[in-house]
Amino acid sequence: MSIIKLQGKEGKEDGIFYEVDLEQEPLGIGGMGKVFRGTQVNENTKGRREVAIKFMYEDLLPQAIDRARREADIRLHNDNLVEMIDFIETEDESSIGGPRKHYHVVSELLDGITLQEVIEGNVPDTDEDGGFGMRLYDEYRNQRDEFAVKVIKAVLFGMMAMHDAGYIHRDIDPSNIMLTIDGRIKLIDFGIAKKMTTLTNSDRSYTVAGKFIGKAKYAAPEQVMGDIAHQDHTTDIYSLGIMLFQLLTGHLPFEGPAHEVLEMQLKKKMPVDEIKNKWLRNIVKKATEKNQMRRFQSSYEFRAALDKPAVNIVINWTYVGYVVLAVAGLGVGVLINNVL
Fold it and tell me: What does the angle CA 281 – CA 224 – CA 178 come to, to the nearest 5 degrees?
């Protein structure tokens, strides 16, 4: 075992440090670093807690480090958001002399799979997880409407907390939704989240250059245009509307090379007619309006719409005929105004 100890300035003040065995297999490898399972140790209470620790690559640009620092600072406690715990900066001496800095992001450890893996069917086909992955995949394939509504409602709860705290996520897609073995649905990865009350230097550069930031297949028109000033709650709502369409139909509304998809997000009508359920079709249509003012104006409004489904009643018309005849025989006029 090769256990190292990590402790930042904040941790020294609070009596908290982290232990990591670097000989273990990483939990994941991404564009900004490798994620390992670690342990948070509280020297005061003697408490121990498993966490996820991202070891960031040493050759990252300063903007990437700033982004990770901002992500770690979004410390919101919500059942449907991953909990960010710490940002640790350490320093040692490089092989050629002089100081060398290392950066680490600590977050809640989640045991599960991403929604993207469920959609792709990339789930364990063994009983290693108690059949958890296969059950989710089966639910997605055979109970699309129910599965979609359950997932979107959970993500909306997390979005409410972010929006109430003044943040927008800007990167909502199935790869950033975790479904855990203990039954939770978590919105993760706050790497490009934006504080709506402030603009960082990075944000200003995007505004001036009109650069796109996000994922093309889920990007709202104002994201496509690089229009930072008009990115708000409704920007996340658009992305979530795209994801709802995908869960309901089994595919994305717009496919192709990124530049073509971006153009379609701006100009092409959403193919909502492919959604069989009229109630859900109308919700997707409203969530993905090109005009921001026509979308749901808050996560609460979106969530409320999902709480008020059209009532589907299977009617036995033979039985209704008997009732009508019986009532008519009593000389009573019956007006059936609406049958939903």
Answer: 60
The first and second tokens of residue 247, run together, are 């869960």
Q: What is the CA radius of gyration of the chain?
A: 25
- Confidence at residue 336, expressed as pLDDT on a 0 to 100 scale: 32
> pTM for this structure?
0.83
Task: Check residue 284 and give its pLDDT.
Answer: 98
Cβ atoms of residues 117 and 105 within 8 Å? no
Question: CA-to-CA distance for 142 and 160, rounded, in angstroms?
Answer: 29
Q: Is 7 exposed, middle or buried (0-12, 13-18, 19+ CB in 10 A)?
A: middle
| Number of neighbours of residue 188 by Cβ within 10 angstroms | 19
Angle at which helix 62-72 crosses helix 201-209, to 10 degrees, equals 120
Torsion angle, CA of 122/127/128/134, rounded to 10 degrees? Answer: 30
Across the strands, what pairs with 112? 180
Q: How far is Cα 283 from Cα 177, in angstroms, rounded to an integer?
A: 20
Query: Which helix (H) or strand (E) segment is 281 a member of?
Result: helix 278-287
For residue 330, list its beta bridge partners. none
d(C-alpha 153, C-alpha 146), whole Å: 11
- Residue 99 or residue 309, greater confidence: 99
Q: Cβ distance 272 to 245 under 8 Å?
A: yes
